[in-house]
């Protein structure tokens, strides 16, 4: 019998989860770094202490297969109700099976129900087609772009929170 993937919040004091998230992030952002020719991007240089700070300050969800963290996403809601979602990563062997979409839905539900999000916002690079496809499939649309350098234009995507979707999960 195979194991199923479970999604849950990562505890701020869970050292093992923090280490697994950081290793997974490093693995998953290699392809982004290669795509843009920049291995100095923040997800590849983030420290364990910085990640622990994110665990304590915001919402971090992980998907586990047994004890292994195979996917993760982070989010927080600012004072005006904008939920900022970031660092959605899925282990390469688990990609293309809907896990990224499940995590995106889960973080939206959590930030909407518990954080009072009015809208969701995230960003990705202009060449990150798989990311863009996922986000569009989940209702996100480009609202801004910013040229970071000659290789990268950062696209900001957003969507309004659907209050009805959070009633059932509250």
Can you characterise this structure?
- The protein is an alpha+beta fold and 170 residues long.
- The protein has a single domain, classed as Gcn5-related N-acetyltransferase (GNAT) (Aminopeptidase, 3-Layer(aba) Sandwich), CATH 3.40.630.
- It contains six helices and seven strands, in the order βαααβββαβαββα.
- It has a seven-stranded mixed beta sheet with strand order 1-2-3-4-5-7-6, with helices on both faces.
- α1 crosses α3 (48-57).
- The longest helix is centred in the N-terminal third of the chain and has 22 residues, at 15-36.
- It is globular and about 40 Å long.
- 28% of the residues are buried.
- The model is unreliable at 166-170 (pLDDT under 50).
CATH class: Alpha Beta
Which class do the helix and strand fractions yield?
alpha+beta
Q: How large is the radius of gyration?
A: 16 Å
**CATH fold group:** Aminopeptidase
- The fraction of residues in strands falls at 25-35%
- Provide the domain count: 1
Could you describe the largest sheet, including whether it forms a barrel?
A: 7 strands, mixed
Query: How many helices?
Result: 6
The name of the CATH superfamily reads Gcn5-related N-acetyltransferase (GNAT)
Unreliable stretches (pLDDT < 50, length at least 5) are 166-170
Tell me roughly what share of residues is in helical segments. Answer: 25-40%
Side-by-side strand order of the widest sheet: 1-2-3-4-5-7-6
Tell me the span between the first and last alpha carbons: 32 Å
Q: What is the general shape?
A: globular
Order of helices and strands: EHHHEEEHEHEEH
